[in-house]
Amino acid sequence: MSLSTYPVDQLTPDQAAEELACLANLIAHHDYLYHQLATPEISDADYDALVLRNRAIEARFPDLRRSDSPSLRVGAAPAAGFKKVRHHKPMLSLDNAFSPEDVTDFLNRIRRFLQLPEDQAVEMMAEPKIDGLSASLHYQDGRFVLGATRGDGSEGEDITHNLRTVKDVPLILQGEHIPQSLEIRGEVYMRRDDFLSLNKARTAAGEPEFANPRNAAAGSVRQLDPKITAKRPLHFFAYAYHALPGDRKDQTQGDILESLNRWGFSVTRLRQICQNEDEVMTFYHQLESIRADLDYDIDGVVYKVNNLEWQNRLGAVGRTPRHSIAHKFAAEKAETIVEDILIQVGRTGVLTPVAILKPVTVGGVVVQRATLHNEDEIARKDVRIGDHIEIQRAGDVIPQVLRVFPEKRLPASRPFVFPGSCPVCGSAAVRTEGEVARRCTDGLVCPAQAVERLKHFVSRQAFDIEGLGEKHIETFYQEKLIRTPADIFTLETRDRQSLTPLRNTEGWGEQSTRNLFQAIDQRRTISLDRFIYALGIPQVGAVTAKLLARHYRSLTTLTQQMTQAQDQNSEAWKELLALEGIGANMASDLVGFFRQPHNIEIMEALSALLTIPDFIVEATISSPLSGKTIVFTGSLPTLSRAEAKAHAERRGAKVTGSVTSKTDYVVVGKDAGSKAKAARELGITILSENEFVALMGKP
Ligand code: IVH
Please, which residues have CB within 8 angstroms of residue 446's CB and are 6 or more apart in sequence? Predict the structure, then answer.
């Protein structure tokens, strides 16, 4: 049966189900013709009739509503909250290039990694970098089943209901060769004119304006009520997809964009294949010149190695792929006045000066503060309160002060005097020889530092406790409810015995208190890398934390090794320095952190309250190399060092830079020196590249 004019109230459930299936397909087909091809085959009135019939049948048989129903486009079933979704493949982010030199380096790195001759072209696909937020869409048998935000890259939030309301997210895919299980990646964004009208409407309704189209898009996608999202004019550009091996016919990024387009997605038309750096730069300047005339914001150009097999070989370093880079447009500048200079105290006690500015719009965003970095920087630029200055804002980064206009300065103006004491606790603030930072000397007692450390502890890449944000940390600290990280996990027990329990305090109730305790409970088991990151060790960001977790695998081992590494003649110190990405400076900060009894106390208190499972290194390919420690030395005949290392790591091996008794294999190439010798002396298995490749197995 196909569509009928049969009265809805006379349909049997079977007929209704069949007709709803038919309507879903038909409406998806006309959506595609209208939105993607701009060649509608039926009149708007006929289209509306289909939508109305679908709605009428669903109204009579609510249980038969399909998950791909066109009526969900208007927003249905308010979500209770956002469920977490683990990404099958991590959602990476791009490295940035800011200059032509950065682009040259990028292309050379690729050539070196793939060991291509210098004159061989590396074909690139150049696409605009859309300034929105990335999303992942899952299709099963061509039907939209799940949509998620990027989140921290490993885990995002389920925003299926909201994405269904986005017109250029197809609910049912069109065309042929659609992989059975398909994940689409792309960018959700809002057009500039839509953003301006939305802000106008919000001002009229007494609601706060969004700072820029991207924030407006992000706010809309994270709406709990999809009915509101449905009213927000969101758009989606697809730029990548993943399918099961064998289910992807495409050979290049260009093919990918064409497939996506055939299936019904909007893909950028502003794309170009480039054969060399000159072509890449020409395209960059072309896009830069039309940037202001586009309907939507772009903040750069993304270059991607066009050949997918090469992309695959290139893989990723940490959270960024080697095969792509975002070449950012120059930052936008503006002039304003310094109204004040405040001193902030960070979690490590560093005093950071911040300029409070007369609000000014730069690149569509209202800027009210700019960082002044440190006292030398203020002195160098001679920034004073009352000065006219030029500022610049690039992407997400905090606005910077470029220069002052001394000619506009008042005669009474005086140079800024940097304080010699901590503005929060009053202790002396000193500079160590050779350091630019001035630090508060009262590490343990200074409330500013304690609060900043706690904020870091609960931040998104650390413990990420829902409902325990920066403001709560500040209040809990003042009320003496949370003074150390461990206090977070004893809060509920103490609250039960308290005469002034949280649920009776202003701003809290039964439900919100219960939610908070639940959110805390959910984090009593925490991954080792998050835990290390949360400690707030100077210079140790999320990437280094993961590196340490991956290498030492348990908190006990890490603590033991860092304690032994206090001695710079120890094996432990050498091992730490041998880790790629850890230099002497960072290593000193690390062992310095483990030298402080106070830090050890914090870790011990937390260990007693938490479960921190050993870090599992997910080998993406199983092989005899899994769990082995490998050292590469000398130049290998065919593989570049980077590619060899990537191969080993994908198979769960640990690659280090120096040979110790814990090394399992040393892969030796031409002109290998002391490491090969050390391996022979320690009786460690030595492999040639061929033997290493054989051990790796396929692919
Ligand atoms: S490819 C490794 N292509 O830029 C991620 N990204 O950090 C692959 N973006 O999170 C991204 N336009 O949200 C790619 N044409 C484009 C893009 C694009 C915007 C975003 C994306 C990503 C961020 C880079």
Answer: 345, 349, 422, 424, 425, 427, 440
